[in-house]
């Protein structure tokens, strides 16, 4: 109970929230991270980070903690209708490895959390309301907790995921269903799987499956499909999820893939609809207002088809940390509330178009690869998307968010 005052309050201890706190710490700004869960959220088991994310992790000073993970060397995409296999190389023009790297989500979160003082992350903290009040010509965010505590903040950053309370306060359009859902899991082979470090993907009408080795004994896998008809609920029990994938959706997939599903650690299985925010809501919506803004999925939820959700959260963190940190340093290591509206506005304008285009590119990528086997879709997929659009998307993904040098 009572009222406390903080410079920066971050809602959510996911990738965006923790990374933003680390970025601010490098400038000397202390942030309080409020997390409604009892501990770090690790739903999803693993994620794949492209080179742009590793540049952000370099800026945050944590990439060395994940050095045991290695780049994906090659990818193979199998057309389930024709049996055609397309090879994708992740070697650059100079022979450099430019491939993505798959990591345990828990390892990434722990690497970020270790950079922060223990007291800066407050778990089991649930927010009941957000408001603002004017104080000496500037805006102060008032965060009401379910416990009765009130927290006043010079800056409030919503990193509270796809169903963000902060984004609702800003008036952003709600995320919408993509029409697809995905299962994710982690397979464990105590004696080693022997798969090698490559990415395997299988594409057919209304479905897409894939797997990639995380370590010599663990494989991350996913299965994406057209969502069941309205009114049909997705299985929640891990055993039911595994059974439905094997018996209904993946029964005609190669044994290599079904064996991976059978080796799943059931505690890692989840099945959820894929959602995204309309890109025009990002381009024209209020991504910040006064001294409040959003980052990560709270700003730009997107489908996983380009593997950029976590990557963009890390970029957000570095850029937001740099804008706030620069103001902090220039004002004698003091956070000046009346400057925060302009500071957050600069961050938003730097991010708005990039993330909107990636939302659109991710949706297009998923739609093209899963939407039918007729000659028109095959032509769009093979002659246009893979040859012309995908290379442009890959080049757009490559991005250096810069350093954190104060």
Observed structural traits:
about 400 residues, alpha/beta, FAD/NAD(P)-binding domain, D-Amino Acid Oxidase, Chain A, domain 2, 2 domains, 8-stranded mixed beta sheet, 7-stranded mixed beta sheet, 10 helices, about 35% helix, globular
Describe this structure in words.
This protein folds into 2 domains: 3-175 and 277-397, FAD/NAD(P)-binding domain (3-Layer(bba) Sandwich), CATH 3.50.50.60; 177-276, 2-Layer Sandwich (D-Amino Acid Oxidase, Chain A, domain 2), CATH 3.30.9.30. It is of the alpha/beta class and 406 residues long. Strands 1, 2, 7, 8, 9, 10, 16 and 17 form an 8-stranded mixed beta sheet that branches. The chain has a 7-stranded mixed beta sheet with strand order 5-4-12-13-14-11-15. Strand 4 (74-79) and strand 5 form a beta hairpin. Helices cover 34% and strands 27% of the residues. Residues 7-326 form the FAD-binding domain. Keywords: Monooxygenase, Oxidoreductase. Belongs to the 3-hydroxybenzoate 6-hydroxylase family.
